Automatic annotation (TrEMBL):
Residues 3-179 form the Trehalase-like N-terminal domain. Residues 232-591 form the GH15-like domain. This is Glucan 1,4-alpha-glucosidase. It holds the Pfam family TREH_N.
Length: 599
């Protein structure tokens, strides 16, 4: 049975419309070309038979074969160098930008074209191409048609793919294209794979070499519009580029991750679809974009959120939306897929949109607070209605249980982090009252805020263990309480908070800086480790914070990408990848180290 690559073996390509994963073995094993949360044409990531596009030396991974790879500076254009016994060859991969796109135009009109350029560096290397598209998560096997120009057209259902390999005449097999060719030092061969819709415009035709140069320039021009002057600038700039790559440029929404159903534990069933945008992550994302990007990204993300929320009544605001604001993200299982290393089920959609999540309004209100000067002295009607609606909803419902920050699928509880987020909503509403018109009621809001605070301090604190716990009346530690100082609910120097930080670090932490979410969590959750960095800075332990930060960032793969979690035994990456929250956590922790008093 074919062994699937490690999650850390994959590099990330993006055109800010969709994304692809390419392994060290030269195989593109994930691509949903229509948009991030669309249907796949390659999904070998989740099943060996669900489609791939491999381009690598013959015998890749065998004796004498060595791989080096890196992104071209300030881009998500990936260059992989294969060293073999017969010579060396480079393959440069990119998802094409629109010709002429610069700065914030990147991704708004991406042509959905995958570029692969082969360059001989030394000797003479025999290359193998294996193109096996399987649209709709492997449900479809397309018909293949040879074209007069030497390319191959693949078509099935709603999908059309056109593969061209400059100068090579490809032959169509029954269900795939296989081809071998030799590359000598100095020889360059460009390939383009273009996506189209069966009943729409035909796939774009682009010159691979020109397009690669244009795409590289588009990414670099985008980075030139962004500045960062704090500590760890290269790490922050790269994480900012990854966040740009996870941004659906047409709306400004940031996908939580590129992938679906990569497991939190190999063989486990906590495998979820993360290709949507979470309001819970909203204020953390806004903060990271504000630090490492520019106001254009934060304002577009904010506009997407307000439009997505729309008018609402008594029903809870969903914790996540589709990338164009879709609300119904009903979940189904792809039972025909084996899952990554037999981790099932494979899910498309995410039923967390149905959950009551009391922390969502606080995330939105925190973002409004961050942008308050930018938004003006008196809010526009729609913004005012949203803020008033969120505030009144929290005032009426904060005492209810919910599913919590980790979106548990068992019973609802009174989670401490959710109550703190409710406190945050009311606190920010009081501060924004002068911008909200005659319906603002800051005195009543302040009473509710203080009632929530008293409840958390009374019910969330456990005297026996000397810490704030995950839920009211519980003795179970939960790393989410590290958000209390970050949200300024309590200063990190408060004796109760110091005790909680120490307890969480001792009971949930590991020697290499990883932090589990709870005691039975099977893996380290990277965001929690970055929260701990921030808490240590705020307690004045700057050197310990820096040492922890540097240990945690060591868990990135060879091209600086983080998944969601790290296996505590093997150190392998786990969960969906690349994970926006992990890169957001890095940016915010680096800025906290730079500016300890920053929000």
């Amino acid at each position: 049975m074919e062994q699937q690559p490690q999650i850390s073996d994959y590099g990330f390509l993006s055109d800010s419309r969709s994304g692809a994963l390419v392994g060290k073995d030269g195989s593109i094993d994930w691509w949903c070309p229509h948009r991030f949360d669309g249907s796949s044409v390659f999904a070998r990531l989740l099943d060996p038979g669900a489609g791939h596009f491999r381009l690598a030396p013959v015998g890749v991974g065998g004796p004498g074969h060595r791989v080096e790879r890196a992104y071209l500076p300030d881009t998500l254009v990936l260059r992989t160098v294969h060293h073999t016994r017969h010579g060396s060859v480079a393959v440069t991969d990119a998802l094409a930008a629109e010709v002429g796109a610069r700065a914030h135009e990147l991704g708004k009109n991406s042509p959905a074209v995958l570029i692969r350029v082969v360059e001989g560096l030394s000797g003479r290397v025999r290359m193998a191409l294996d193109f096996a598209p399987r649209p709709e998560y492997g449900l479809l096997t397309p018909y293949l048609h040879e074209q007069p120009d030497g390319g191959v057209l693949a078509g099935a259902g709603p999908v059309v793919l056109m593969l061209r390999a400059g100068g090579l005449h490809l032959r169509a097999g029954v269900d795939r294209v296989t081809h071998e060719f030799e590359v000598s030092a100095g020889q360059v061969i460009g390939m383009d794979l273009a996506f189209g819709e069966a009943y729409g415009d035909p796939p774009a035709r682009m010159d691979p070499l020109t397009t690669l140069a244009e795409t590289t320039q588009a990414w670099r021009a985008f980075r030139e519009t962004h500045g960062y002057s704090g500590r760890y600038p290269e790490l922050v700039k790269h994480s900012s580029t990854v966040l740009t790559g996870l941004t659906y440029a047409r709306s400004g929404a940031v996908a939580a991750a590129l992938t679906s159903s990569l497991p939190e534990q190999i063989g486990g069933d906590r495998n979820y679809d993360y290709r949507y945008s979470w309001l819970r992550d909203f204020s953390l994302t806004m903060r990271a974009l504000w630090v490492a990007a520019c106001p254009d990204e934060t304002s577009r993300l904010f506009a997407w959120a307000t439009r997505s929320i729309g008018r609402f009544g008594d029903e809870p605001v969903p914790v996540l939306f589709g990338l164009e604001g879709e609300r119904d993200l009903s979940e189904h299982h792809c039972n025909h897929l084996r899952g990554y290393r037999d981790s099932r089920p494979v899910r498309v959609g995410n039923d967390a949109w149905r959950q009551r999540q009391l922390d969502v309004p606080g995330e939105v209100m925190s973002a409004v607070w961050r942008l308050r000067d930018y938004l003006g002295a008196r809010f526009e009607d729609e913004l005012r209605e949203m803020v008033l609606g969120l505030t009144e909803q929290v005032a009426a419902t904060w005492h209810l249980p919910d599913r919590g920050i980790w979106e548990t699928r068992d019973e609802e509880r009174h989670y401490v982090s959710s109550k703190v987020s409710c406190w945050l909503t009311m606190d920010r509403a009081v501060g924004l009252a002068d911008r909200l018109g005659d319906r603002a009621d800051p005195r009543r809001w302040a009473r509710v805020r203080d009632e929530i605070r008293d409840s958390v301090l009374r019910e969330g604190w456990n005297d026996r263990i000397g810490a704030f716990t995950g839920a009211f009346g519980s003795a179970e530690l939960d790393a989410s309480v590290l958000a209390l100082p970050v949200t300024h609910f309590l200063p990190a120097t408060d004796p109760r908070m110091r005790s909680t930080i120490a307890m969480v670090e001792r009971e949930l932490g590991t020697e290499d800086g990883l932090l589990r979410r709870w005691t039975t969590d099977p893996a380290g959750f990277l965001l929690c480790s970055f929260w701990l960095v921030e808490c240590l800075v705020m307690t004045g332990e700057q050197q310990r914070a820096e040492a922890l930060f540097e240990r945690v960032v060591g868990h990135a793969n060879d091209v600086g990408l983080f998944s969601e979690q790290i296996d505590l035994t093997t150190g392998a990456q786990l969960g969906n990848t690349p994970q926006a929250l992990s890169h957001i956590g890095l940016i915010n922790a680096a800025w906290r180290i730079t500016e300890p008093e920053s929000y």
